[in-house]
Amino acid sequence: MSNYQLPDLKYDYGDLEPIITAEMLEIHHNKHHRAYVIKLNEALEKYHEAEKKKDAEKMVELQSAIKFNGGGHINHSIFWQILAPIKDGGGDLKKEHSVYKAIEKDFGSFEKFQELLNSKSATVQGSGWGWLGFNRQNKSLVIQTCQNHDLLSARGIFPIFCIDVWEHSYYLKYKNVRAEYIKEIWKILNWQEIENRYKKIIT
Ligand code: MN3
After folding, report:
1. 150-173 pLDDT, tens per residue?
2. What pLDDT, in 10s, does the model give residues 175-191?
């Protein structure tokens, strides 16, 4: 039987302050992400039951819950990894990194890339995610957005890093000003992990 688990964070809830407060991170990880994991496991259990009974109607019915909660679990698991406390190198952009050079090549400059990702993420309608991804076909970096918890990989694009722009990720501190949260989150991006993810996909 499948049994997905809430992943532990590599930092404490207070470690991303002041960008993300301890209260925000605890609710986001321990409540929201945990709920996706629980509901994913429940939906999969029901799915396996339905499969045993050859109940195709029930199996189709359950797919939306699997997609939503499974996507929530997968996307958040990436999100926690690509963040780091400032004291542990969060926001420390390294110009010698391959991913930095690729960003400059594919977007003209790092500043242009940042502006574009910020504006696309800020204008996601409703809930969703902003992404830097790698398109394997033309071997270039792309900025994309997804609705809800849709997976970037479902479009054939490898996820390098993401910004959660659901209201639950910023509302406690930034209220309705999503753009301010997005501007701040660059200060806690884990560029070493982002570099590792980029290198893994290009080699
Ligand atoms: Mn979230």
Report:
1. 999 999 999 999 999 999 999 999
2. 999 999 999 999 999 99
Expressed as residue numbers, the domain containing 75 is 20-85
In a domain, 1, yes or no: no
Q: How far, in Å, is the centroid of ligand 1 from the Cα of 68? A: 12
CA of 32 to the centre of ligand 1 (A): 7
**Tokens representing 13?**
């809830």
188 with 139, same domain: the answer is yes
Distance (Å, whole) CA 10 – CA 15: 10
Task: Determine, yes or no, domain membership for 124.
Answer: yes
Residues with CB under 5 A from ligand 1 (ion): 164, 166, 169
Question: Domain holding 66: CATH number?
Answer: 1.10.287.990
pLDDT tens digits, one per residue of 54-94? 999 999 999 999 999 999 999 999 999 999 999 999 999 99
The number of folded domains in the chain is 2
SS3 assignment, position 72: helix
113 and 40: one domain? no
Cα 76 to middle of ligand 1, angstroms: 6
Q: Which residues pair with 134 in a beta bridge?
A: 141, 158
Which two tokens mark 10? 């590599």
The CA 195 to ligand 1 mean position distance, Å, reads: 23
DSSP 83: B
Residue 114 buriedness (CB in 10 A; 0-12 / 13-18 / 19+)? middle
